Amino acid sequence: MGVHMAKKNFLHSKEAHNYAGICRDLTEDQAEALFAQLRWGSETEQACPDCGTFRRHYRRNGKRRWRCADCGHEFSATSRTAFHARKLSYRRLIGLLLFFESGAKGRSLAESARELGVQIKTAQINFGKIRETLVNSMDLTPLQGIVHMDGIYLGGKPRRPNRRTKMPKDALKVRYGKKPPNDPSKPWVSAGMTRRNWRKRMKKRVVISICQTGDKGAGSERVMAFVCRAENEANVIALAQRFIQRGSLVMSDESPAYNRLGSWFEHYSVQHSDTPRVS
After folding, report:
1. Contacts with 30 (C-beta within 8 Å, 6 or more apart), sequence order
2. In the beta sheet, which residues pair with residue 148?
3. Which of 259, 270, 255, 261 has the alpha carbon at shortest distance from 243?
4. Mean pLDDT confidence for 168-193
5. What is the DSSP pairing of strand 249-252 with strand 266-269?
6. pTM (2 decimals)?
7. Among 247, 218, 216, 241, which residue's Cα sits nearest to residue 144?
8. What DSSP line would sit under 180-218, residue for residue?
């Protein structure tokens, strides 16, 4: 019986350590050449963002720009990208990208600003540009095979574990919009909440993740995440029909929001303390 080794996280690999060291030692010219290579696939030929001509354009010495040989438009390696009209050097941009990528669980803005030698607002703006690019370039083709769906609530008031409160009848139905409150002017009473917590709840959002499982030990192949107001049947079905291919096997927890997935997919509900059941 052979032993199956799990795939190592890339951040733990030798290649990740070597690449980080190489990026930190780049000169400004080398950093610009890396941006050009990543954008156009060449360090000597460029694509004009105005007319689209791909060839060796005229270099503007001292400006780190090119002038198009056909239309005369001037451009750089970051023109019409998320870093258009940048003020940071190419070395700083690569450092910022590397710092963003290596933080598997995120980075605080204050920490990022200190490490990169920039203002907190600068780190915030550029991290926002990276996130915007990731969203705009996300592959939205439907997932297939074994697909996991789950949701996590974020924001609102902090959860207090082991807290016992006596709730009115049907309070949960009122909380999640399945039943109107007895007094519309004071909905928090029927929901078994204080007015302050009811208002905090309005800021709460759920992130529903859809994950396509890879081969055994290989981890996930693709993951999509969507921000919704609630983990309810309407949102779950809309996401599943749009982003999961028919015939796939869908795994979820026992939340009633996932009960109707069996109408379109082979659906299994995982009981956290028991064996899976088929819906």
Report:
1. none
2. 211, 251
3. 261
4. 78
5. parallel
6. 0.64
7. 247
8. --SSTT-HHHHTT--HHHHHHHTT-EEEEEEEEE-STTS
